[in-house]
């Protein structure tokens, strides 16, 4: 006999039983492997499925972010109060479906609220009432001043809330598209939502960074001072140059060039090292003469005093004591 097995050791019934058990075991193993493969395949499909983005508010910001998102997300519904604007946005983005009603919006993984700040609460209330947002969905707005907590009614639906603010001007969508790469984007909100949105910001070419809880107002104030007030400062400086008899053309070049040079110094050296002028020298006489030519315009004089007081604080101990006291009198105490 084969393998040296003698006939007296062979039990036909036992052999048949073992054969059947072995066959059943192999079938069970194949069955389990098939189910395991199916589970892995489903999991991979879920992980690799392209997520859908609905956009509410199809103005300049919504259009630009939608167009930038085409390669990383599936653009779903585009909603605006004016349906024609949604249709126009679809053409600009090259994707998405204009949607006629907020209350019937289709499901999505991410919801971008690119609406004015004073409309966010209204849109959130309408979405919560319609029950369109699912548990686990990410809802985020792009306001620079408001926190994600403004959308709190959607938290009751299980939504994850956040905000993303690209620190750039969206005055012209075409120019914004061309210059968006490298734009700093401030994020705040629920940790899991912020984590996913950081990946999205990187995918569209931005550079994400996080704000401290409750830091949105201070963040927006910083940007407003750096951008809006720079424009105002330019206008006030041109007003004074005109008062001195300088032509508009020459004044524009004179003030503009000096502002550019000063900003370059600030960025290269830091504010304290770049600071020059009569206040840091402790020259109270010159500051007094400045204020004298502004006496007819209280807004102009108040702006000068406010900036002068801040400049005096920035100057620290550099002005001599003999100059600091009269400067404080001119810039600070005169406002009391």
Describe the model.
With 336 residues, this protein is of the alpha/beta class. 56% of the residues lie in helices and 12% in strands. The chain has helices at residues 12-48, 60-68, 83-93, 117-130, 173-179, 191-203, 216-243, 248-269, 271-274, 278-281, 284-292, 298-315, 321-331, and strands spanning 52-56, 74-79, 97-99, 110-113, 138-141, 160-166, 184-189, 207-210. An eight-stranded mixed β-sheet has the order 3-2-1-4-5-6-7-8, with helices on one face. Helix 2 packs across helix 5 (173-179) and helix 12 runs antiparallel to helix 13. It is elongated and about 70 Å long. Residues 1-10 and 33-47 have low confidence and may be disordered.
Structural class: alpha/beta
- The tally of structural domains comes to 3
CATH topology value of the largest domain: Rossmann fold
Shape: elongated
**Share of helix among residues?**
55-70%
Key structural traits:
336 residues, N-(1-d-carboxylethyl)-l-norvaline Dehydrogenase, domain 2, 8 strands, 12% strand, disordered N terminus
Summary of the model, kept short:
This protein has 13 helices and eight strands. It is an alpha/beta fold and 336 residues long.
Topology:
Blueprint: H1 12-48, E1 52-56, H2 60-68, E2 74-79, H3 83-93, E3 97-99, E4 110-113, H4 117-130, E5 138-141, E6 160-166, H5 173-179, E7 184-189, H6 191-203, E8 207-210, H7 216-243, H8 248-269, H9 271-274, H10 278-281, H11 284-292, H12 298-315, H13 321-331
Parallel strand pairs: 1-2, 1-4, 2-3, 4-5, 5-6, 7-8
Antiparallel strand pairs: 6-7
Helix pairs in contact: 2-3, 2-5, 7-8, 12-13
């Amino acid at each position: 006999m084969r393998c040296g097995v003698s006939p007296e050791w062979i039990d036909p019934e036992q052999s048949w039983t073992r054969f059947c058990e072995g066959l059943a075991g192999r079938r069970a193993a194949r069955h389990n492997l098939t189910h395991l493969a199916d589970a892995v395949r489903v999991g991979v499909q879920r992980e690799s499925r392209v997520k859908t983005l609905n956009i509410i508010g199809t103005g300049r910001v919504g259009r630009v972010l939608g167009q930038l998102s085409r390669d990383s997300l599936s653009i779903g519904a585009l909603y605006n109060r004016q349906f024609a604007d949604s249709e126009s946005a679809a053409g600009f983005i090259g994707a998405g479906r204009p949607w006629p009603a907020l209350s019937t919006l289709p499901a999505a993984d991410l919801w971008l609220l690119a609406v004015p700040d004073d409309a966010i609460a209204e849109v959130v209330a309408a979405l919560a009432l319609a029950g369109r947002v699912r548990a686990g969905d990410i809802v985020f707005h792009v306001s620079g001043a408001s926190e994600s907590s403004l959308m709190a009614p959607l938290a009751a639906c299980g939504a994850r809330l956040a905000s993303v603010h690209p620190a750039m001007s969206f005055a012209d969508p075409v120019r914004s598209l061309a210059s968006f790469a490298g734009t700093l984007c401030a994020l705040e909100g629920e940790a899991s939502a912020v984590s996913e949105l950081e990946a999205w910001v990187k995918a569209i070419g931005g550079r994400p960074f996080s704000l401290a809880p409750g830091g949105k107002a201070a963040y927006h104030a910083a940007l407003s001072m750096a951008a809006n007030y720079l424009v105002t400062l330019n206008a006030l400086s041109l007003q004074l140059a005109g008062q001195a008899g300088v032509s508009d053309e020459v004044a524009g070049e004179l003030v503009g060039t000096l502002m550019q040079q000063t900003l370059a110094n600030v960025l290269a050296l830091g504010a304290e090292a770049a600071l020059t002028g009569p206040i840091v020298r402790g020259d109270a006489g010159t500051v007094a003469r400045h204020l004298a030519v502004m006496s007819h315009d209280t807004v102009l004089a108040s702006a000068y005093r406010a900036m002068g007081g801040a400049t005096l604080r920035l100057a620290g101990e550099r002005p001599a004591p003999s100059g600091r006291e009269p400067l404080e009198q001119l810039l600070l105490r005169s406002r009391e």
